[in-house]
Design a protein that fits this description.
mainly beta; Neuraminidase; four-stranded antiparallel β-sheet; 24 strands; disordered C terminus
């Protein structure tokens, strides 16, 4: 005999289940979440070569994922946390690679003879990767399938377009561009249409946009106060707020934690040594995680928590079905 639960019971069961998942994610042990970053610690001072490392969010338990004479940089976690995209010079030019989360099975997915591929970022569902490239002579933003197939130039503009980052719902891509004369933050639809300028400061460079997990904010770096600091603004470009106030230091490359409560970023100090820092999303509680005086550690990417493997639109659809009492 087939047991069929009443819809009301099923509805409340799913509500309780979602609540449990939220609580579980919020109580995830700190050391279970990793931050990927690039480091020159294996090559000595001023070698300008890097490997990809992992560390706990406390800065402890470092694990080297890549090794060899090439430079491996720009790590970016896949949404499900099983893979890391990165940039490498191991074939003589810069290309996009994907490896397992433990550093195994690295695969070159761009294989451009002209090279110059940079700044990979995954789509929320993990099916595509956006990046910028100089393969056609000008710095443009491209998108491809996660295996490297179906390459498309999204921007096709005479100016430089860089540092793409996908919105959490997958509908838009933020990037920075000098198409108005200096670097500003833009957003466009995921297919490259409707580019819209968000920042407009003729005396500053605004770079490296990073969407908050809920899609309401964008963090970025700017030198509008005289040196590079981390800022956050609403996703429509309004209400920019300065988060860091580090005189004589260069703060850049912000990256949100999956829960949106913290932001990791990189900073070059007054002697041009780089470290990875973490702060609360309001700029408080600043902590230097790497504290390496003899190497450069920067370009951090925060591991997604278990709840983050559910794309925003799928979770929203599930919740909508529960509210409409359509769960079967």
């Amino acid at each position: 005999m087939k047991l069929v639960l009443p819809k009301r019971i099923m509805r409340w069961f799913l509500i309780v289940l979602i609540g449990f998942l939220v609580i579980l994610a919020s109580h995830l042990p700190v050391d279970a979440v990793k931050i990927a970053f690039q480091s020159s610690r294996d090559f000595g001072e001023f070698a300008f070569k890097y490997n990809i490392y992992l560390m706990d969010t406390s800065g402890r338990n470092l694990v080297r994922l890549t090794q060899g004479p090439a430079s491996d940089i720009n790590p970016a976690w896949s949404p499900d946390g099983t893979q890391i995209a990165f940039v490498s010079s191991r074939k003589g030019n810069l290309g996009i690679y994907v490896m397992d989360a433990d550093g195994g099975n690295p695969i070159n997915i761009t294989q451009s003879p002209n090279g110059g591929d940079w700044s990979p970022a995954w789509s929320p569902d993990g099916s595509r990767i956006v990046f910028n490239s100089k393969r056609d002579g000008n710095e443009e933003i491209y998108v491809m399938n996660a295996n490297g197939a179906n390459l498309i130039n999204l921007t096709q503009h005479l100016k430089s377009d860089r540092s793409p980052d996908w919105s959490p719902n997958g509908s838009q891509i933020a990037f920075h561009s000098d198409r108005d004369g200096d670097y500003e933050i833009y957003v466009m639809n995921a297919d490259g249409t409707n580019p819209t300028q968000l920042t407009q400061d003729p005396w500053a460079s605004d770079e490296g946009p990073s969407w908050s997990p809920d899609g309401t904010k964008i963090a970025f770096s700017s030198d509008r106060d005289g040196d590079n600091e981390i800022y956050v603004m609403n996703a429509d470009g309004t209400n920019p707020i300065q988060l860091t106030h580090n005189l004589w230091e260069i703060d850049f490359a912000p990256d949100w934690s999956s829960g949106g409560r913290k932001i990791a970023f990189s900073s070059f100090n007054h002697v041009l040594r780089a470290d990875v820092y973490v702060m609360n999303a309001d700029g408080s509680n600043l902590v230097n995680l790497t504290q390496n005086q003899n190497a450069d550690d920067f370009i951090a990417s925060w591991h997604p928590t278990p709840l983050a493997v559910f794309p925003e639109e799928k979770l929203g659809t599930l919740w909508g079905r529960i509210k409409q009492n359509k769960v079967k």
